[in-house]
Amino acid sequence: MQERKSELKSKIYDERVLKIGIAIHDKIEDPLQILVRLLRKRRLHSFSAILIKSDSGSFGEFMNRHKRRSDLLYTINSKAGLYVLLCQETQVDGGYYFVDRLTKAWKEEQTEHGVIASIVAVESTKYEVWDIVFALLDPFNDIIMGHKQENVSYGTLK
Questions:
Q1: Where are the alpha helices (H) located in 42-91, listed in sequence order?
Q2: What is the sign, positive or negative, of the torsion defined by CA atoms of 114, 120, 11, 24?
Q3: For residue 106, what are the domain limits?
């Protein structure tokens, strides 16, 4: 019984993390529904959602210069440097390579602020918007809390 309690406690989110999740949902619910509909109609094969953070105030402008025209950039919290990028026809490896290129370019421009990111590729229509949001948020939270050593986490919802 004690084991079960500690397992449940580790899955409880603090207020800050839940508020980030709610803000993400509020900003990208409609675009996610559109992308899932395009998947369902087979007009897309996949898309990736990237939750990305840097502590610099100019990071949003930087991302806007480096994203593709077909990518959708959403500011979740500009003061916290928190953004979501939705990339059409992008699998998880494409999202990973994009974040890698972005991070290298950012280091050349701004050496004092790093980047952390969570990437989720969506290849199926069986997931609800909240499932996608938490697939982004869970590994991102693990990075912030120091449970993961990497600055980038990635996965696929098939």
A1: 59-66
A2: positive
A3: 2-157
